[in-house]
Amino acid sequence: LGRKINSALADLNKAPVIDEQVLDGMLKDICGALLASDVNVKLVQRLRTNIKAAVNVQEAGAGINKKRLVQKTVMDELCNLVDPGAEPYKPTKGRANVIMMVGLQGAGKTTTCTKLAYHYQRKGWKTALVCSDTFRAGAFDQLKQNATKAKIPYYGSYTETDPVAIAMEGVDKFKAEKFDIIIVDTSGRHKQESELFEEMKQIAAGIEPDSTIFVMDGTIGQAADGQARAFKEAADFGSIIITKMDGHAKGGGAISAVAATQSPIVFIGTGEHLHDLDRFEARPFVRKMLGMGDLSDFVEKVQDLKLDQNKTLMKNLESGQYSLRDMYEQFQQISKMGPLSKLMGSIPGMPADMMAGSEEEGTKRLKRMMCIMDSMNDTELDSDSTPFYTQPTRVVRVARGSGTSVHEVEEILSQYKRFQGMVKTMGGKDGLFKNMPTDP
Ligand code: GDP
Ligand code: MG
Question: Boundaries of each SRP54-type proteins GTP-binding domain copy (predicted)?
Answer without folding.
Answer: 264-277
